[in-house]
Structures are given as structure tokens and as C-alpha cells.
Amino acid sequence: MSxxxxxxxxxxxxxxxxxxxxxxxxxxxxVQTVGLxxxxxxxxxxxxxxxxxIDVTVSGFLGKENQEGFQQLFSENGMTNRxxxxxxxxRINVKLTERNSEVTDFNFSGFYVSENEWLKFFxxxxxxxxxxxxxxxxxxxxxxxxxxxxxxxxxRLRQICPCIIFDSSREALVAxxxxxxxxxxxxxxxxEIWAGRLLPGLSDVIMAAHQxxxxxIAHVVIxxxxxxxxxxxxxxxxxxxxxxxxxxxxxxxxxSMVGGLVYGLLMRESSEHTLRLATAVSAxxxxxxxxxxxxxxxxxxxxxxxxxxPIK
Length: 312
Fold this sequence. Notes:
312 residues; four-stranded mixed sheet
């Protein structure tokens, strides 16, 4: 098995991460800067996979005017870069964590993708993505790319690469689900929006997950924040709970979970082992300012602390 993965991030961002004891509206807030990172969901997934020793190709769109940080990220981590450059600047997203661990996001707008630029990506990417074992598609849609065209691209990608891992929100989530990807990872809020109702209990969440499976989606993983993660597939349902962790930043925690899921699936691990691994990777991510795995023994120790049980 070649164990090759591609990640697609159509609308990446520089994440400006900071700590603010308490955000006060209408006045000056003093922020401790934690870091400015070239990121975007698929790029975060790629970082985790590279730390775990998987070959990764990254693609999507980048603004020509401020691409340097991303080029450095790809080079330093040995990622194969197949991003498409467009006029303008890649956006900056500000992520502020308060003392109560609540995170407030300020997501700015970025570049515009013209119809010709999208068609080039659409056709060209489908000519080379079929060579990968798995393709991770995550994040929002850039301005200029319609939900309908994104659904079309996803459906065609599904024909050449059956194992698509999909993680998005809002209109991109709805559009991508229409193509019935192999695995989806919404958080609880995103699942509630899709379902059109609140999901107060675990049984409600499982019911909504089965509604997604009825669309032809084999695996549904729902991230539940500090309550852990739920995986529902044809073999059953499992809930994984992390131990209490000191939160530095929740930025990239969901992407880290996706990276862990992809790694476990590539290694042909069981659903239980894969969910335990993914939850541990995500739990480690919140205790540090940036995504990635710098200490494998620390990851093994965290895996041992994850509570995992089947849901009857």
C-alpha cells in the first residue's frame, strides 16, 4: 500500500492566535500573541500526517501576494506543493482564547477565484487526484466558487477516489454532503444546523448520524468538544472521551482529529483504535499553540488516558 494522501484546502488562512483574559467590547483589549501560522484546515491535517510519517500532497488556492509563509510550511515539512496561485492575498483569521477556554474567531475575507481559475483547478486536479489512497477535502469555499460547482467537483472526485474525508461547515458542508463522501466529520453545532434541529442527547446525535449514513456516507465522526468524539458506521457506534486538558488554543483541534482518523484508516486499524488515536491527537492539540505531533511517547500516553466505549 502506497499510503499517499492529498489534502485540498480551497480557502486557506494565516491563523493569528492569541490569549485574552476576557474580551471587552467597545474598548482596548490586551492580547498575548501566541503565534501567526500558515494554516487552513487541510494544511493542518497535512502537518499532523507528516509528523506521523505519511507522504502528503497539498493543494487548493493561495494568494500570490503573501504566499511565503505557506511555501515555508510546505518546504520545512516535506509536503508536495500543488497549490494554484491566484491574484490577491490569502486571508488572516484571528483566534482569541479567553481564560474560560472560550474561543472567539474573526475570519476575514481573502482572494477572489475567477471562473477561469476555478475551471483550471477543477479539470487539472481531477487529472492527478486519482493516484491517492485518500483525499481530504476541508474548509470553506473562497469567493467566486459556487456551492453547485463544488458539488459537481466533489462528485467527480468521488468517482476517481472513493475514500474522500470531508470536513467543512455552512454552505460548503451542505454542498459536499450531496456527493456522499466516504467519511465526514462535522462538529455538533454543524450537525445541528444540517439536521435543522437541536440534538441535546447522545441518542439524538446518533440518529442524525444515521441520517447522514442514509445518504451513502460510510463513516460519520462528530466532534463534541471537551466531551470527546462519536463515530458511527455500519459496525456500530463508539464514544471517546479525552481527559481534562489545559487549553492554550482550540485552533486546529478538529483538523488534528481528522489527521488521526486518516492515519488510523490508512494503517487499517480498527474503528476503536483509530478513534482513540484521533481523540488523543486532538486533545494534545488544544494544549499547544500550533498543530502537530512533536512527541510520539506523549501521544501514546494520551491514548492510554482516553476513555472509549461502544454505544448500545
